[in-house]
C-alpha cells in the first residue's frame, strides 16, 4: 500500500491504483459558515429591546412611586406617592420599629416567595447570565420590586436603582423566555432591560450601556450593543417625557483643573480605591457573621433592621435612598462634622442591612460614602495646599465615582455616570484619573469585586476581562497547508489495512481524505472505519463514506474551523479553497489548534514566569 501526497491542487501517487474517474459519493462539502457581525436578526432584537426599554422605564417610575407611597405611610402616616426622604419624620424612638417591620415582611417574602429577592440584584442577574442561560424566574419580575419597595420605603439605606436594574433584567429575561430565541439573544434582552432601568432612574443612558457591557453582557459585539443602546435611548425618552432632562445631581459650573490638581485627583482616587476594597471586604465579612447565627435566614433582615432603625434615630438622613444626600455632597452644601457623621453612619447602616440579606441596592450607598470621602479628602488637600486649584465639589464627584469603580470594577460606567448625572464636562479628566487609580488599587488588592465575590464563593469563576479571541485572528492557511496522506476511492479496504499496519510514512494519522480519479475530495474515513470488524476487506474505501465531506476553507479563521469541528463532532478537517472546494490543499487537526497558541504563549512566557513567582499584592 502506498500513499498520495497533496501539497497543492495536484497530487502524485506511488503505486496506488487510481480509478480513471470516480463520481463523488455526495455532491456537497460542508465548510465553516462566516457569519456577519450584524444580521437582520439584530433588527428584530432591537425592536423587542426598545419595547422592553419603554416597559422598564415605566416600571422604574412605578417602583419609585411605590417607594414614595410606603415611605409616606410608614414615616408620615399619609397617602402620597411623592418621593420623599424619611429624614424629616417625627416618630422619635418609634422610628426603630419601622425598618424592623419592613425586614420581617421581606424575610417572609424571601422564604415563601423566592429567596432570589435577597441581595442587591446585580450579582444575582450576573449569575443567571453566566450559569442559567439568562433565565430569571418570572415571579421575580414582581417580587423583586415589591420587596425592594418595602425594604427601602421602611427606611432601608439602599438605592432604588439596584432593584430597578434587577427588575428590568427580569422583564427582559421573561420576554426572552417567551420568544424563540437563543440564550445569547436572551442575555441581550436581559441586559437591555437592566440598562433601561438604570437609565430611567438616573437619566444616564451611556453609562447604563457601559454598565451592561462591563457587568452583564460579558462581551462587546455589535449584535449585543445595538439593542441595549436603543433600549436605553427609548428609556431616556420616557424619562424626559415624565421628569424632564435636568441632571440627577446638578452642581454649579466648575473650573478647568490644573495639572497639579489632576495629580491630586489621582491621589484621591488611590485613597478611595483602598476604601472601596475594605468596604467590599466588610460586606462579606458581615455576611459571614450573619451566616453563623443559630436561626433561619428569614429573620436576618429584621435583625439587621434593628441596627438600621437605631442609626436612623441618631441620624435620620441615613434612612432611605438618600439621593438628596448625594446631591448635597457633590454640590458642596454638606461638609464638616455633619458630612463625617452622615457618611460614617450610612456606611455602618448599609453594611449591616446588606449583609442581613434584605432586598436593596448598592449604587446609591456607594455613591454617598465615596462622595463624602472624596469631599473630606478634597477639603483636607485644599487646607494643606490652597494654591493647588482643587475643587472640593469635583473631589466629591471623583470620590463618588471612584468608590463605585473600585468596588464594582465597572470603570467606564463609573466615569461616564458621574459626568451624565452632573453634566459637567470639565470633570471628565479628574474622573478618568481618580477612577482609574481606584480601579488599579482594586485589582491589586482584591481577586473579586463586590459584584462577583458572592458568585466566586459558590465555586464559579467570573471573567470580566475582554480580549479578541486569539484563534479568530489566525487563518487556517497560516497553520494547515502541509502535505496530506490521501486514499483513492477504489482502493480495497484490505490494502489500506495492510498499509496502515506497515507504519509507512503518513499512515499514523487517525483519519484520511478520500479522493477520486482526478484527485478531488470525496469524503473522509477514519481508522475506526477502516478496521471495523464488520467491514469486508474486499470492499472499497469509497464504500465506507457515509456523509458529505466536512472541510475547512483556507480563508476561514481557526475559531470558525474549531467551531465547525465541534458542530460536526470531528477531529480533523481537510483544507480546501472556496474557489475549488474539492481540491485538497492541507489538513487541519485538533492538535494544530493547540499549536497555534504557541506564539501567544511565547510572547507571554516572560510575564507568566514573573507573575508565577510574585504573590498578588495585599490579597487575602
Give the overall shape. elongated
Number of strands: 8
Strand-pairing-aware structural class: mainly alpha
Number of domains: 3
Estimate what percentage of residues fall within beta strands. 5-15%
Q: How much helical structure, as a percent, in the residues?
A: 55-70%
What is the H/E string?
EEHHHHHHHHHHHHHHHHHEHEEHEHEEHH
Figure out the total of helices: 22
Q: For this structure, what is the CATH homologous superfamily of the largest domain? A: Clc chloride channel
Query: Which fold does the CATH topology of the largest domain refer to?
Result: Clc chloride channel
Strand order of the largest sheet: 2-1-3-4-5
Can you give keywords for this protein?
620 residues, mainly alpha, Clc chloride channel, 5-stranded mixed β-sheet, 8 strands, disordered N terminus, disordered C terminus
How would you explain this protein's 3D organization?
Helix content is 56%, strand content 6%. The chain is built from 22 helices and 8 strands. A 5-stranded mixed β-sheet has the order 2-1-3-4-5. A 3-stranded mixed β-sheet has the order 6-7-8. It has 3 domains: 4-31 and 471-598, CBS-domain; 40-243, Clc chloride channel (Orthogonal Bundle); 259-457, Clc chloride channel. With 620 residues, the protein is mainly alpha-helical. 50% of the residues are buried. Helix 7 crosses helix 8 and helix 14 (392-408) runs antiparallel to helix 15.
Amino acid at each position: 500500500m502506498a500513499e498520495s501526497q497533496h501539497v497543492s491542487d495536484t497530487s502524485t501517487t506511488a503505486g496506488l491504483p487510481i480509478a480513471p474517474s470516480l463520481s463523488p459519493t455526495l455532491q456537497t462539502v460542508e465548510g465553516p459558515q462566516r457569519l456577519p457581525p450584524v444580521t437582520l436578526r439584530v433588527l428584530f432584537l432591537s425592536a423587542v429591546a426598545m419595547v422592553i426599554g419603554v416597559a422598564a422605564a415605566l416600571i422604574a417610575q412605578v417602583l419609585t412611586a411605590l417607594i414614595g407611597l410606603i415611605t409616606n405611610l410608614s414615616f408620615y402616616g399619609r397617602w402620597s406617592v411623592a418621593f420623599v426622604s424619611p429624614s424629616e419624620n417625627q416618630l422619635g424612638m418609634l422610628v426603630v420599629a419601622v425598618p424592623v417591620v419592613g425586614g420581617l415582611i421581606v424575610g417572609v417574602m424571601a422564604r415563601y416567595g423566592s429567596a432570589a429577592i435577597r441581595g442587591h440584584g446585580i450579582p444575582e442577574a450576573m449569575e443567571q447570565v453566566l450559569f442559567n442561560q439568562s433565565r430569571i424566574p418570572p415571579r421575580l419580575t414582581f417580587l423583586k420590586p415589591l420587596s425592594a419597595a418595602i425594604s427601602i420605603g421602611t427606611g432601608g439605606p439602599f438605592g432604588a436603582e439596584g432593584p430597578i436594574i434587577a427588575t428590568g433584567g427580569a422583564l427582559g429575561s421573561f420576554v426572552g423566555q417567551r420568544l424563540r430565541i437563543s440564550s445569547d439573544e436572551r442575555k441581550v434582552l436581559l441586559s437591555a432591560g437592566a440598562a433601561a432601568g438604570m437609565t430611567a432612574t438616573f437619566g444616564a443612558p451611556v453609562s447604563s450601556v457601559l454598565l451592561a457591557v462591563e457587568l452583564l453582557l460579558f462581551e462587546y459585539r455589535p449584535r449585543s450593543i445595538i439593542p441595549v443602546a436603543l433600549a436605553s435611548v427609548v428609556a431616556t425618552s420616557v424619562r424626559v417625557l415624565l421628569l424632564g432632562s435636568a441632571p440627577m445631581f446638578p452642581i454649579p459650573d466648575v473650573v478647568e483643573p490644573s495639572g497639579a490638581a489632576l495629580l491630586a485627583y489621582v491621589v484621591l482616587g488611590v485613597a478611595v480605591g483602598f476604601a472601596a476594597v475594605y468596604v467590599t471586604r466588610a460586606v462579606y465579612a458581615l455576611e459571614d457573621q450573619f451566616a453563623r447565627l443559630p436561626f433561619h435566614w428569614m429573620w436576618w433582615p429584621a435583625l439587621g433592621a434593628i441596627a438600621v432603625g437605631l442609626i436612623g434615630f441618631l441620624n435620620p438622613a441615613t434612612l432611605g435612598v438618600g439621593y438628596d444626600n448625594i446631591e448635597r455632597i457633590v454640590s458642596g452644601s454638606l461638609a464638616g462634622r455633619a458630612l463625617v457623621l452622615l457618611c460614617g453612619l450610612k456606611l455602618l447602616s448599609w453594611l449591616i442591612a446588606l449583609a442581613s440579606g434584605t432586598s436593596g441596592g448598592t449604587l446609591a450607598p456607594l455613591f454617598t460614602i465615596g462622595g463624602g470621602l472624596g469631599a473630606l479628602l478634597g477639603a483636607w488637600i485644599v487646607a494643606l495646599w490652597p494654591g493647588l486649584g482643587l475643587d472640593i465639589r469635583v473631589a466629591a464627584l471623583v470620590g463618588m465615582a471612584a468608590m463605585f469603580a473600585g468596588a464594582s470594577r465597572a470603570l467606564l460606567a463609573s466615569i461616564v455616570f458621574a459626568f451624565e448625572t452632573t453634566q459637567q464636562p470639565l470633570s471628565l479628566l479628574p474622573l478618568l484619573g481618580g477612577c482609574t487609580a481606584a480601579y488599579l488599587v482594586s485589582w491589586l488588592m482584591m481577586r473579586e469585586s463586590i459584584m462577583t465575590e458572592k458568585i466566586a464563593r459558590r465555586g464559579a469563576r467570573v471573567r470580566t476581562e475582554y480580549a479578541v479571541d486569539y484563534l479568530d485572528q489566525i487563518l487556517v492557511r497560516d497553520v494547515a497547508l502541509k502535505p496530506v496522506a490521501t486514499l483513492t476511492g477504489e482502493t480495497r479496504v484490505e490494502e489500506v489495512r495492510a498499509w496502515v499496519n506497515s507504519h509507512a510514512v503518513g499512515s499514523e494519522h487517525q483519519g484520511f481524505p478520500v479522493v477520486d480519479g482526478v484527485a478531488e475530495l470525496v469524503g473522509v474515513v477514519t481508522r475506526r472505519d477502516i478496521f471495523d470488524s464488520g467491514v469486508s476487506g474486499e470492499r472499497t474505501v469509497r464504500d465506507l463514506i457515509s456523509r458529505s465531506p466536512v472541510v475547512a476553507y483556507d480563508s476561514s479563521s481557526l475559531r470558525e474551523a474549531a467551531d465547525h469541528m465541534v458542530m460536526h463532532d470531528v477531529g480533523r478537517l481537510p483544507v480546501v479553497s472556496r474557489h475549488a472546494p474539492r481540491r485538497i490543499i492541507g489538513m487541519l487537526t485538533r492538535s494544530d489548534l493547540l499549536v497555534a497558541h504557541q506564539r501567544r504563549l511565547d510572547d507571554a512566557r516572560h510575564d507568566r514566569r514573573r507573575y508565577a513567582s510574585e504573590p498578588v499584592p495585599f490579597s487575602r
